[in-house]
Structures are given as structure tokens and as C-alpha cells.
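--- STAGE predict ---
source: upstream dedup step, 1 unique chain passed
mode: sequence only
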Amino acid sequence: MFRELMQTAGLQMWAEIGLVAFCVAFGAVVAYVLHMTPKEASDAARIPLEDEEVTR
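--- STAGE serialize ---
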């Protein structure tokens, strides 16, 4: 019954939009990480260990 309700509701388009949005966001994060300099990566790796607030 629930499956039939979801199929007739026409929500498949929203699931596809969500999947595309997730893939774009994931690709953006991967591209950002791959283009980080070693210093930026080192600074980001130490953030959880620092007690004071980091400002840039």
C-alpha cells in the first residue's frame, strides 16, 4: 500500500534531484581537498587538537 502511494505521488523527480545535489556537493568537497596545499592540510588536521579558537 505504501509503495503504491509513493509511486502515484510522483516523487521520483525529487529523489533524482537530491541524488544529483549530493553528487555535486561531494565532488566539490573532493575537488577542494585535492587542491589543498600541504600547509592547509596540516592546519586543518590540527584543528581538533587546538584549544583556542582559530581565526583567519
